[in-house]
Amino acid sequence: MLGKTIMLVCSAGMSTSLLVTKMQKAAEEKNEDVEIFAVSASEADINIQNKELDVVMLGPQVKFMAKQFSEKLAPKGIPMEVINMSDYGLMNGASVLDRAFELMDGK
Question: For 32-53, what is the mean pLDDT?
Fold first, then answer.
């Protein structure tokens, strides 16, 4: 997979920064070419409009926004899912990265 882009969304864009780092490390270990970044929920719309996104993953703290994100992303064909609470709490970057690739592959 070349040049995939994963956007994580959380309430302030800060709590997912550690998860992004762990996901990037896992991607490097798997030799995957992927851009992973985190934004706050308020910055998500501009990124949805202006970036080529392959998948969007919501932090558990913004789970309540899943329906609204799904409605924005469905017309663009961008898969979206709330990050597993356990993986998020443990900052399991490898597991979250694997799930992102599964979503991109339509599984």
Answer: 95
